[in-house]
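Allow me, if you will, to draw on your knowledge of protein folds for a short while. Thank you for your consideration; the sequence and its C-alpha cells are set out here:
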Amino acid sequence: MDKIEHIGIAVKDLEASNQLFEKLFGTPHYKIEEVATEGVRTSFFKTGPNKIELLEATNEDSPIAKFIDRKGEGVHHIAFAVENIKQEIARLKNEGFTVLNEEPKKGADNKWVAFLHPKTTNGVLVELCQEINENEG
C-alpha cells in the first residue's frame, strides 16, 4: 500500500455536510459524483495532500444508509492507494484478510476499488484504490 488515498465519511445530508466541511477546511469541494451501483453520492475535498470523501446514501438499501442506521454519521472507511489492486487483493487474501470484492469494481474518483471486511481489520473498513488507466475499462 502506497499511502492513504482518502478518508470516507458517511453523512445524512450531502449539501449540509458540504457547507460544514467547506467552513472547516476553508475550501470548497472539488467534485460531486454519483455511484449508482453502490447507491451513493460522493463529494470530495482536498486539504493539503489529503482527500476527504463525503458519502450520502441515494436509497435506503445502500451500504451507507445501513451504516448510518447502525452507527450514525462519521468515519466510514480509510482508503489506501495501491499500484496493482488485483495483486494486492491476492496478497491480502493470502495473509488471511477477508476481501469483500474478489474482483475490483469501479468506484468514485476514477478508481478501481475493493474492500476488506472490518472483522479482519480491527473494526476498520479498508478500501483499496487504484487509478483507472484511460485504456482499461
Summary: The first helix runs from residue 14 to 25. Residues 106 and 112 are 5 Å apart (CA to CA). The longest strand covers residues 3-11.
